[in-house]
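Hi R.,

Here are the chain sequences for the assembly we discussed:
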Amino acid sequence: MPTPVIQLERVGKFFEDEGVTAIKDVSFVVYEGEFVSLVGPSGCGKTTVLHMIGDIADPGQEEGRILVKGMTPRQARSQRVYGIVMQDPALFDHLTVFRNVALPLVVMGEKRKARQQASYFLEIVGIDRKFWNYYPYKLSGGMKQRVAIARALTISPDILLMDEPFGALDAMTREDLNFELLRIWKESGKMSILFVTHSIEEAVILSDRVIVMSSHPGTIIGNVEVGLSRPRTRQTRKTADFLQLVDKVRSFLEQNNNNQG
Ligand SMILES: Nc1ncnc2c1ncn2[C@@H]1O[C@H](COP(=O)(O)OP(=O)(O)O)[C@@H](O)[C@H]1O
Ligand SMILES: [Mg+2]
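And here is the predicted structure of the full complex:
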């Protein structure tokens, strides 16, 4: 039996000040080693879901239950269960690439390990050594996001939470990084990834499973198993099976739009 690592039971979030129900009745499970994407239109509550799991959500009224490896999100965070990557790589401008990546472990007082892990993961994400002493402003968007991924990985998290990490990149770079991410995930062994995107194609090419959300209020309207064999390649994107899966996810979203008139 697969082991659940993230469990949401009828989770809701209401922002009182603005009177917004961001999400309602959101239930799903992510299993150990699984790659799951969350897709849905802008504003449907994807980020809210991810932030609640990662214990970094804005204050508001909450419902339901979230368990991460059997713990509350707060406990899980203190146990360094998560790596988190956002759309904005949010690197520190005054620190070199290497120091940015080492930072999470340096902050924890593990300097030696920080150096080892930073070297290891910078190699893994494909940042050439000659850039390790550069400051972030000298890097392209794609390279910055690679550095952000390396930084998230330095604590060797069991769970990687990613919020539209490639949304700001050009199509070619984005595709490259999709396949790089799959390689990194495979090399990690048992890491689970919850990946937020509004690109249906990106969700399908990456994932074992795609969870589809609708808006107002954000809730789950579909769950699509992606049975495509791995490793996946650019060729996979041209297969009939791939296109059919993209269509299946899209039809959940369209059906929902029609129902809302
Ligand atoms: N701090 C907040 N205060 C008030 N409303 C918020 C806050 N954060 C998000 N929302 C609202 O909750 C809804 C879901 O937002 P979000 O989770 O960011 O959606 P998504 O990531 O899918 O685009 C939106 O209507 C948004 O305006
Ligand atoms: Mg968002």
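The chain has two domains: 1-81+158-203+219-261, 89-156. The longest helix spans residues 240-259.

Let me know if anything looks off.

Best,
T.
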